Amino acid sequence: MTDFQGQVAIITGAASGLGLAIAKKLLNEGAKVGLLDYNETALKNEFDHFPDQSESIVLDITRQDLVESAIEQILKRFGRIDILVNCAGITGITNTHSHLVSSENLHKVFELNFMASFYTSKAVLPSMLANNYGRILHIASIAGKEGNAGMLAYSASKAAVIGMTKVQGKEYAENGITVNALAPAVIQTPLVAAMPEAQVKYMTDKIPMKRCGTLEEAANLATYIVSKENSFTTGFTFDLSGGRATY
Ligand SMILES: NC(=O)c1ccc[n+]([C@@H]2O[C@H](COP(=O)([O-])OP(=O)(O)OC[C@H]3O[C@@H](n4cnc5c(N)ncnc54)[C@H](O)[C@@H]3O)[C@@H](O)[C@H]2O)c1
User: Fold this and answer.
1) Residue 38 appears among annotated catalytic residues
2) In the chain, where do the E strands start and end?
3) What is residue 90's predicted lDDT score, i.e. its pLDDT?
4) Among 43, 64, 67, 75, which is most exposed with the fewest C-beta within 10 angstroms?
């Protein structure tokens, strides 16, 4: 059992899917949460009844200046940041081939999946360093480990996230800060619902357990990764793929 009483967590993409499930679990286990998303209505509906424990900030997290002021706002309100979970992500256009990929779409996917995770981690690290404690979790994907055909932008951006995790894990290993990633296969969320059926079938057919992961399974593993108990693993990409990746 983990207990997040007295801890402050920032979750991006908290209005939907994995981010929402992880934020709710951390809230229920006593954490104060800073919630970053551009879906104002969903943030309001999900978190307005936790006024003392939560601070919702509506922003486009691909804007570094807005990320910096959001982190300042949360520090001002709660006084510390122990945990960062980067969940906001998009697939971009999928079910296509590399010679047909638009550079514009590739840039857009990298801007959110990779750059925004860099912006948030850069912004929280000074206060984690000052406290000699921190837990950062970047949500990557099995696509970043294996490369899903038809998903160049998404797979490459998630591989970049895995690379950043390895770098950051080593850089802060002596500062009480762990930086890990999580690589899910398919979990039914609005992100998956928006993808072409053929692309989703390609991904789910590869899962040995012959089922999708659940949000509860994702939230359970994510909260363990950002807990105090997870103290000797850093720079690592945890698997959540029903047996697809055994490395
Ligand atoms: N669902 C899966 O099967 C799966 C598998 C592997 C990895 N992932 C990763 O998990 C993470 C969460 O995915 P999900 O399925 O929960 O997605 P989702 O679409 O349900 O949620 C993503 C959230 O990010 C927010 N968001 C998107 N762009 C934003 C921006 N520019 N600024 C602020 N907020 C923004 C959206 O409003 C939404 O609330 C993503 O990084 C995704 O790549 C998901």
Assistant:
1) no
2) 8-12, 32-37, 54-58, 83-86, 134-139, 177-184, 237-240
3) 98
4) 64
Residue in 119, 133, 154, 172 annotated catalytic: 154
Measured between alpha carbons, how far is residue 190 from residues 7, 98, 199, 239, 240 in Å? Answer: 29, 25, 15, 21, 18
What pLDDT, on a 0 to 100 scale, did the predictor assign at position 157? 98
**What's the CA-to-centroid distance between 174 and ligand 1, angstroms?**
31
State the burial class of residue 21 (Cβ atoms within 10 Å of its Cβ: 0-12, 13-18, 19+).
Answer: buried
Domains and CATH numbers, the chain: 8-239 (3.40.50.720)
Ligand 1 atom with the shortest distance to the CA of 19: 16
Does residue 81 have its Cβ closer than 6 Å to ligand 1? no
pLDDT for position 2? 61
If you measure from the C-alpha of residue 102 to the centroid of ligand 1, how many angstroms do you get, rounded to a whole number?
A: 21
The DSSP bridge partners found for residue 183 are 239
CA nearest ligand 1 atom 21, residue: 16
Pocket test for ligand 1, best of 10, 12, 16, 66 (most atoms within 8 A of CB): 16
- Distance from the CA of 87 to the center of ligand 1, in angstroms? 6
Q: What is the mean pLDDT of each run of 10 residues along the chain (247 residues)?
A: 88 98 98 98 97 97 98 98 98 97 98 98 98 98 97 98 98 98 97 94 95 97 98 98 95
Average confidence score pLDDT of the chain: 97
Sign of the alpha-carbon dihedral angle for 166, 234, 12, 150: positive
pLDDT at 68: 98
Distance between CA atoms of residues 240 and 112, nearest Å: 22
